[in-house]
Design goal:
single chain; mainly beta; 4-stranded antiparallel β-sheet; about 0% helix
Amino acid sequence: QVQLVESGGGLVQPGGSLLLSCAASGSIFRPNTMGWYRQAPGKQREFVARRSSGGITNYAVPVKGRFTISRDNAKNTVYLQMNSLDPEDTAVYYCNVGFGGNVYWGQGTQVTVSS
């Protein structure tokens, strides 16, 4: 069916950077929307960023100016470049894809920001 494979999570110090990637495969081509959500311990899942197939982007206020979302439509891959990371960014990050009237989720990748 549809699979979303994520990579790039890990442990970094405050002020550091990470690059997350998510590759979609299966019965999917040029998804309408590709983006990222995150969920911290004890909190609800929240929107982070998204990018449409036409290049329109949206960012949550807490990450605007620090994170950059991009995508390679030919490879069905979305990226999230995270700079100036703060302990408040610690969470499980989930890839989110909209295509054909359906919404798909990745398995999640852990991002931990700690000194």
